[in-house]
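Thread: "does anyone have the structure for this chain?"

Original post by V.I.:
We have the sequence but no experimental structure in hand. Need at least a predicted one for the grant figures.
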Amino acid sequence: MNVYIYNTRDYENKSNWTLGENKPNSNPNKPNLRKAKMNVNSLITKDYRKKDDFIVRKNEPNSNPISVKPKISVNLYVIEDYENKTAFRLQKNKPKTKPISSKAKMNLKSLAGKSGHTPGRREVAVFLQSMSNPIYLSLRASCNKSYCGVNQTTTRCNQLTRLRLQSLFWLICKTCSKGFRTMTRFKLTRRDFLKATGSFGVASMLASGGTLAQTAGRGERKPNLLFIWTDEQRYNTMAAYGNEKIRTPNLNRLADKSVVFKKAYVTQPVCTPARSSVMTGMWPHQNGCLKNNIPLRKETKCLPELLNDPEYRSAYMGKWHLGDEIFLQHGFDEWVSIEDNYIAYYSEGRDRNLRSDYHHFLARKGYEPGKRGTFGRSFAASLPIEECKPKFLETKACDFLRRDRGNPFVLYINFLEPHMPFTGPLDDMYDPDEIDLPENFKDPLEDDEPLRYRKKRESCRKKYGMDEKSMRKLIARYYGLVSQVDRSVGRILDTLEKLGLSDNTIVVYTSDHGDMMGAHGMVEKGVMYEESARVPWLMHIPQLGMEGHIVKQPVSHIDLVPTILDAMGKTQASAGLPGRSLIPLMKGENPARDHVFIEWNATSPGEETIRTVVSPDGWKLCLADKDKSQLFNLNRDPFETTNLFYDGKHQDVIVRLTERIRAWQIATDDTSARHLTN
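Reply from O.Q.:
Generated one for you, tokens below.
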């Protein structure tokens, strides 16, 4: 029978065949032949050795896909894991190779490409535009006689430069300038090339007659990091934290295969300070981000800079709120911005006429910005779901994963939602009548509670309306925002799975701080109550295999960066940071520290400074310098309705926990809050 396509998912069982017509001969009526031959064009398979799920195409070289030792005459062999011979695909018009052979060879001379030039001994030309294992080189002063597409000039880069071989004689320089695209042919001596690629073992490989393809696939795969976080998401907004009414199927799915930290606290319950700790692993009083809109110092390293591995591709997408909002910085290779709220806080010399990526996305859709030349948050939240910020970030993130699936990567995605304005396209997803109010919604906040908190409650009543009906409607919209984020998270996780990356990708999900959302009659954050200071924190670490593991002990975001670095095999990179890896705790070992600390730094003259400690035995002490202090027994009073600090019955607890705070202040060089009430 003449066949066009032979498609089977299980050749060994000879089932599920599909036969076409008018193409090379085959003999499907004799399927029991152990060495059946097929005259085909090209073979695409996820796992050749199992001989399943392959597709035969047309107009390409002959192959014998059923033979145990097939030979395929192909053009370019693209592979994510050469040693295991998995996930390869065939291209055209490139040198011949034998992808199944353990000594596959690539004829580099045929890589002359568009220039028609055959690379000689003193030149290197490797075409990696479609390869799944791009190689990065570190070259010093290598940009001589190179053309910069941004400045339209010939440039010379005298810095240690990260270069990605992108196509024949064209490279992307990571330090020359933002938006840099292409550079003309690089001429390197053989010695320079071998020195630059020494970290990959290329020198020894070439000396022994190996190939670049073999080198890229020999070492163990480095783990990827997918870090997803939100803004202002309180801890109990998914099933893993006891909320069965909110619909977050994708976060629930992630929680089922993750370590779930049930009592995760931020370092300071407000945006910039909390974010500074998440990104740097340092306390706000250490990195200088004591309140909102203080820029993170350039010399303070974020995780990509601590990782310090040129093989990783890194991207930050979403809200930043650590200064110079829309500009590439702190070791990231790519930057996708969504906020234009912080133009007034840009550093000197930054162009304040530039706008975020999301702004340009909306402009291309035909929308007109407001009077200030920007699209406000309320406007963005009023758009159809396909044009809102979560969908925009989802699309950008999935595109990044597809483009860089062959590289080890670090990808941060920060959704603005469920942050105010507390409205979005899913406002009607939840019936307000079915929303439960917080247990402490009617807490009167007696005179022994901080004055600032009582003033905040009155302000929230004027802003949001604090009757039960108003609060249920607000919480319903808040849940809708969380569900909106959940949808985008689900598509990102699905993309990760479809690309075959999930088994080697660490996934983190958390938020910068919580929201009171009616607790103690308040909304927003900025207070030490649990609803403000606690967040969800999920960690999926494939190498640990601890699916659905629950950690009930209090933990802090200060340990997030060391934990990630430990999971990525870079334990030494966290040396000098105040936090410690929580992986021993995940494994059931005793933690290095068992008390969690939280700080509040005054945001205006006359405002109080607070230092808080949460003990493993359920006590929470909040020491203030200019306002009321607080003491809560979280075991008996989980909703913090009774302040025990002034009842005269718990002086021993106060003294014990005060000593803990003092010791922590000394250890972290905290000199901004020495005079606390005790």
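V.I.: this helps a lot. Residues 468-498 form the longest helix (31 residues).
O.Q.: and DSSP finds 16 helices and 24 strands in the chain.
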